[in-house]
């Protein structure tokens, strides 16, 4: 429809003309247009940006297809998003809320797993399918909530800190559940390997939090003092961001956990310039993360009752089970903050879809159930921002 | 060598684990490391970043292979580089140096074409090969020079402005020469189509410079006033950047010409925040542009006399012909500034390689000549920064 490449090839005699600028214009421009419309409908812009992905995806307009480039820009986007969040919070303050966050994470893992298992069992599917859907409903994708809280200047609210810490713990728990269900799909659980996986993931996070932050605060200024290249502060920050992301992947947790820890490591020493330059990269890349979520969902599912009913059931169960699971875990904070935590943990985003894809590749999840999990993953990211706005309605805004 | 992906796949049961953070770490980290070494050897960092590409490329360490992702990040990098340059200069001041720049561009197109044609003819190759190599030696890649001038705060020097304008004119002239030689390779020249190509490219540039800048200055503040999304200024800037890049591609010129014009269009109205956020995106992406140039060259060519001799001949001819061609065109400025212009136009970078690739795809350029053109393209980008530093040695620096 918008592909004029052959026309250009007429002049240059080459079919290899890149349509990169056009892809950038469509994704970035339409994301921001839908974000603007969303704001005018009194919903957060982020919901509109995800919906933009549904509109331009293969299901409807087919202007953009999920591919390596969009996917990589999306991954970079969520890494920069979490890096920026890490820059804004203090490790010492996060450690202090660790107890409540642990309860919120455990509650928010157990209830969704049980809910997913029961629903899919009740729909008459085999046990392994029910277990996989349960696992896919576990992992919170903290990027969506973090972006809403960042844009509204609410990152240092008590409930926000608990959401961030709970999301990191949730990622480790999700890794372990995924390891267990993957083993089940392959035949049996290897408890030695499972213990190693757990030790590596937990060890990595604790090592960075309790040793890395202090070391970096002493060590980085010394390195900076010896560098002659331009923007040395930002260069070091990016090397730390990519370095800890790589280590996180090798430790078994998500790259964004490494990105978050990298931001937190720098938080105490980063100057204003590093914050500004990070914002520039994040503003460019985050829309790709949001659009890429929307791209996964074919909006035609809304018109097909046979697909829609189980998808809606799984979606509603995912919202309620995470809300009550994490909310009850954080009950100690009082009702209002517990509600904030419960809602902040709702988005599943890319994490749920990855689990479902693994199930699909093992042949233990059929296509319709996979589609229902994708529906749940995407729609939880769409409903969370307006709910969060409501939950934080009485909290003073920065802007 | 560094690929631990299978090891991760052990845990997750999936082979689709992305090694994106690792690619980012290797490219960005080693580019900056080589940049730092380069600075300590009293050469500009940019030369080291290009050499980093040669080191990690398939010819030597084989850590990174040229592919869609690196190529796209590189293209984005040079777009942001030129956008940032455009933000720093004023259209009105560039129009004033148009006359000298036109002469510098014409001189810098004619001499390299003749030099390339003569050398390849003298080496005993057929006429069509000689014409293609001549065409590949024409187009200046202004990104390298622009980055050096930006980093040293020299963009608003008189010679710098002439280099920027001459590079835009050079791009249009290069497009026309490419259209002519492509037609020759396909059988004959269609003068009507050639005129249309010329009219479209020249019309686009003139339209933006003489009408777009003024219109945007009046129109954009009005749009901004009506937007409710966060960072609306930067969002509009990026939409303009991608939009004009798309239009540039459809008008037949390089996307970076559109990016440069977009920056210039905003220059008058962009506030400090837009400059800062643009710098953030540029600092992240520009190293990919530089590394991607280096990736194209296999450093083993330096050890092979049979390949090295013709490559060196073409390289030396490319440097001298552009230096004297553009330098004599700018002679009116006096010797010192003419030398700056002549040196600033030397880098060929990705543009020369694209022409050579087209020749290769038409079967009119054999592989050894293609390799020699790649050598010339990459090495002109490596030698230009130190020469530029020398040429501007008496000019007061900002930092």
Q: Which chain pair shows the most residues in contact?
A: A-B, 72 and 74 residues
Count of the domains of chain A: 1
Query: Shape of chain A, please?
Result: globular
- Give the uncertain stretches of chain A in residue-range form: 1-18
- Compressed to H and E, one letter per element, the order of chain A equals HHHHHHHHHHHHHHHHH
**Would you give the CATH topology of chain A?**
Na+/H+ antiporter like fold
Helical/strand content category of chain A: mainly alpha
Any overview of this molecule?
Two copies of one chain form a homodimer. Chain A is an all-alpha fold and 399 residues long. Chain A has one domain: Up-down Bundle (Na+/H+ antiporter like fold). Helix content of chain A is 77%, strand content 0%. The first copy, chain A, contains 17 helices and no strands. Chain A has helices spanning 5-12, 20-40, 45-56, 68-88, 91-96, 98-122, 127-136, 142-151, 158-186, 191-226, 232-251, 255-267, 272-295, 305-329, 335-344, 349-362, 367-391. In chain A, α2 (20-40) packs across α3 (45-56), α6 (98-122) runs antiparallel to α14 and α16 (349-362) packs antiparallel against α17 (367-391). The longest helix of chain A is centred in the middle third of the chain and has 36 residues, at 191-226. The radius of gyration of chain A is 21 Å and the shape is globular. Chains A and B meet through α1, α2, α4, α9 and α11 of A and α1, α2, α4, α9 and α11 of B.
């Amino acid at each position: 429809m918008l592909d004029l490449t052959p026309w250009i090839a007429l002049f240059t005699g080459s079919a290899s003309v890149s349509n990169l600028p056009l892809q950038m214009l469509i994704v970035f421009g339409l994301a921001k247009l839908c974000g603007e419309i969303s704001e005018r409908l009194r919903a957060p812009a982020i919901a509109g940006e995800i919906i933009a992905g549904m509109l331009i995806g293969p299901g409807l307009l087919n202007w953009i297809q999920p591919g390596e480039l969009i996917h990589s820009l999306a991954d970079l986007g969520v890494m920069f998003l979490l890096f920026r969040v890490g820059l804004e919070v203090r490790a010492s303050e996060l450690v202090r809320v660790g107890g409540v966050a642990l309860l919120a994470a455990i509650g928010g893992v157990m209830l969704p797993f049980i809910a997913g298992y029961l629903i899919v069992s009740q729909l008459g599917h085999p046990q392994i399918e029910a277990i996989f859907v349960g696992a896919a409903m576990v992992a919170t994708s903290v990027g969506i909530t973090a972006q809403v809280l960042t844009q509204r200047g609410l990152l240092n609210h008590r409930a926000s800190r608990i959401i961030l810490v709970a999301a990191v713990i949730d990622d480790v728990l999700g890794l372990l559940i995924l390891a267990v269900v993957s083993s089940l799909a392959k035949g049996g659980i290897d408890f030695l390997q499972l213990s190693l996986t757990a030790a590596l993931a937990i060890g990595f996070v604790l090592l960075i939090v309790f040793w890395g932050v202090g070391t970096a605060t002493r060590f980085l200024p010394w390195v900076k003092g010896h560098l002659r290249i331009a923007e040395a502060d930002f260069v070091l920050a990016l090397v730390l961001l990519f370095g800890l992301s790589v280590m996180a992947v090798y430790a078994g947790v998500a790259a964004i956990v490494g990105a978050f820890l990298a931001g937190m490591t720098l938080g105490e020493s980063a100057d204003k310039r590093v914050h500004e330059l990070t914002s520039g990269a994040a503003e460019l890349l985050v829309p790709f993360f949001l659009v890429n979520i929307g791209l996964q969902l074919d909006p035609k599912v809304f018109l097909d009752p046979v697909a829609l009913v189980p998808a809606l059931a799984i979606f509603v169960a995912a919202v309620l089970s995470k809300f009550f699971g994490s909310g009850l875990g954080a009950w100690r904070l009082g009702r209002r903050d517990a509600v904030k935590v419960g809602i902040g943990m709702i988005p599943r985003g890319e994490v749920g879809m990855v689990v479902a894809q693994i199930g699909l590749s093992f042949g233990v999840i059929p296509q319709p159930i996979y589609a229902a999990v994708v529906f749940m993953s995407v729609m939880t990211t769409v409903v969370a921002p307006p709910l969060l706005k409501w939950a934080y309605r009485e909290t003073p805004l920065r802007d």
